[in-house]
Write a structure and sequence with these properties.
Layout (H helix, E strand, L loop, with lengths): L12 H10 L5 H9 L22 H13 L4 H10 L1 H7 L12 H11 L5 H12 L8 E10 L7 H19 L1 H7 L2 H8 L12 H22 L12 H13 E5 L5 E5 L23 E5 L3 E14 L7 H7 L5 E8 L5 H13 L6 E3 L7 H9 L3 E3 L8 H5 L9 E3 L4 E3 L8 E7 L2 E7 L2 H5 L4 H4 L8 E4 L2 H13 L3 H7 L4 H13 L9 H24 L11 H10 L1
Parallel strand pairs: 1-7, 7-8
Antiparallel strand pairs: 1-5, 2-3, 4-5, 5-6, 9-10, 11-12, 12-13
Helix pairs in contact: 1-5, 2-5, 3-4, 3-22, 4-5, 8-9, 8-11, 8-12, 11-12, 15-19, 21-22
Length: 570
């Protein structure tokens, strides 16, 4: 398929007349074409298309279709149908009223081409560039970030179902790729009886004994199939089949192979306490989405999938009045969207988010985040780059601090120059040991056992079996940053200022209501990233439309009386 950059075609006169008559007040699609037509050009996609072959549909037009699709939360079939029957969509795409549109299968092929060429964020970045040029968003100012969970587009499988389904997926792939070889390698009728239907389509045995027997059968079948594929007589390319490699990984992660005292080979399921299991960020959860991971948040939320971080611009308006503020001033726009594995903690996403904002020329002067994002190193690094992180840092988590009794770190006086620490009872530390913990520099301070054991308040200071108190400190500059942040976040001024962060939760709710951002449409991290990039673009388009039409977003967010109060005090 080749590309001849043309951009969106001009709107035919008949389409203009009918669209203006049908929509005298305009519509989202019409206003997007009139105001943002320059965003949806073909040139940014040139590298994804060749110069030979039959010309394909304009990628600029397909990207506009995808944005409108997400703005209305449509499936591919529904979006393709809208391009045929919706007058305002025909206006936006520059089509004749008699145009028959395109087949819905064009959209997944277009997305696959974007993902294959690393162009998931092209449209999002293009729209942000337009907003920067229009003065709707700029560097400095305030921005806020929050994350939410994303449920994958695959079924939840327990370990037994995963073991069986991984064998089934490998057999399905081999049946297509090498049917003759598979017929020689395994007993096809027996395997078809066991793995013909999906593993989760029938009820598993009720007793633990029968489930263990079934698990052993799955493990033996997987091992037998792996040995057949990796035998010298098998074609080497069979090992490169994705489903086969996934089966091998599930086999290693789920089973152990031992030789009994009688010399018999025994395949048994791994037990966490005895054999160990892979950590969560490495453990496969589905043979059909190798990037999806199980994760938990608190005691109530447990999901299989991903995590998305949304960052938006914000002014100094109280969260309750933001809908009116977007009409009076600049709209709050999403400036970054980052999708990660569900097992990646928020603190690991902070630096990449801030770097991406800087790369776009949109670093904030103040960055509002919740307590999962900061660390002493990140706060200091951001400040050196001109960004103040307005975020609650985690308090001292020692037993003494948690119980609000005894002596926590704040009760000790630190002499950084002399490299000594004095305890509340006047005793001086005897050890000062710079160490490396969890890839970070730290200092371990130790007090003498003779001093601690004879101390009258020892029960309030330490309960360690070794008999003496030890402290773990950050290096001086980080310790100072952390102490200052902990002191500041206790003040009323800081708490009033931090209230601005709450508005980003409304953005997540809006993304959920409009685009269904908490449920992945596609499988695999690259495609889910593309989904979230288009979701963020659609949200920005909806907000720009509300800004253009001076129509506040989400009128149900506050009461009419409250809105009148804000209007009178503005």
């Amino acid at each position: 398929m080749s590309l001849r950059p043309m951009g969106l075609p001009p709107v035919p006169e008949q389409t203009v007349r009918v669209a203006r008559a049908a929509f005298p007040q305009g519509s989202l699609a019409i206003r997007v074409r009139d105001r943002l037509g320059e965003v949806f050009t073909d040139e940014p996609f040139a590298e994804a298309f060749g110069v030979r072959g039959a010309p394909g549909l304009s990628p600029g037009m397909l990207s506009l279709v995808t944005v409108l699709q997400f703005a209305e939360n449509l499936t591919d079939r529904q979006a393709a149908a809208m391009a045929i029957r919706a007058i305002d969509w025909k206006y936006a795409l520059g089509l004749e009223l008699t145009d028959t549109g395109f087949d819905h299968s064009v959209l997944p092929r277009f997305r696959a081409r974007l993902v294959g060429n690393g162009m998931e964020r092209v449209v999002f970045d293009r729209l942000l560039e337009y907003c920067v040029d229009a003065g709707l968003v700029a560097a400095g100012g305030k921005q806020r970030t929050d994350s939410t969970h994303v449920v994958s587009a695959v079924r939840d499988l327990n370990r037994l179902e995963l073991a069986g389904e991984s064998v089934r997926a490998a057999l399905e792939a081999l049946s297509v790729a090498a049917p003759d070889w598979l017929a020689r390698a395994v007993d096809v009728p027996e395997f078809a009886h066991r793995y013909g239907p999906r593993v989760d389509s029938w009820k598993l045995p009720g007793s633990k004994v029968k489930r263990d027997q079934l698990s052993q059968v799955y493990g033996q079948d997987a091992l037998r199939l792996c040995r057949a594929v990796w035998s010298p007589d098998a074609p080497a390319w069979l090992r490169e089949i994705g489903a086969v490699d996934i089966m091998r990984q599930v086999l290693v992660q789920t089973y152990t192979v031992r030789t009994s005292s009688r010399g018999k080979e025994v395949v048994s399921k791994r037990e966490a306490d005895e054999d160990g299991v892979p950590p969560g960020h490495l453990r496969l959860a589905s043979p059909y989405d190798t990037d999806a991971r199980w994760s938990a948040k608190g005691d109530d939320l447990f999901w299989l999938g991903y995590k998305v971080h949304l960052t938006e611009s914000c002014d100094n308006t109280p969260p309750e009045a933001e809908a009116e503020a977007e009409v009076r001033g600049r709209p709050n726009l999403i400036t970054d969207v980052t999708t990660t594995l569900s097992t990646v903690p928020d603190v690991k996403a902070t630096a990449p988010i801030q770097q991406q904002l800087a790369d776009r020329g949109l670093p904030p002067a103040e960055h509002y985040l919740d307590s999962g994002y900061p660390s002493a190193e990140l706060i200091e690094t951001a400040r050196s780059r001109g960004t103040v992180m307005v975020t609650p840092v985690l308090l001292d988590r020692s037993a003494q601090a948690k119980s609000h009794a005894g002596y926590d770190k704040s009760a000790f006086r630190i002499d950084w120059k002399a490299r000594r620490v004095r305890c509340p009872q006047g005793n001086t530390s005897t050890g000062w040991h710079p160490v490396r913990q969890r890839e970070r520099d730290a200092i371990v301070v130790e007090f003498a056992k003779t001093d601690c054991q004879a101390c009258p308040v020892r029960p309030e200071c330490t309960s360690a079996r070794r008999g003496n108190r030890m402290l773990t400190l950050y290096p001086e500059h980080l310790h100072t940053v952390l102490a200052a942040a902990r002191a500041e976040q206790k003040t009323k001024t800081w708490k009033d200022k931090y209230a601005l962060r709450a508005g980003v939760e409304g953005t997540i709710n809006q993304a959920l209501d409009i685009t269904g951002i908490r449920r992945a449409r596609y499988r695999g991290l690259p495609k889910v990233r593309l989904q979230h990039a288009f979701s963020a673009t659609a949200i920005n388009v909806v907000r720009l439309d509300a800004h253009w039409t001076e129509h506040p977003l989400d009128r149900s967010r506050t009461s009419n009386l409250t809105r009148l109060s804000y209007r009178l005090t503005a």
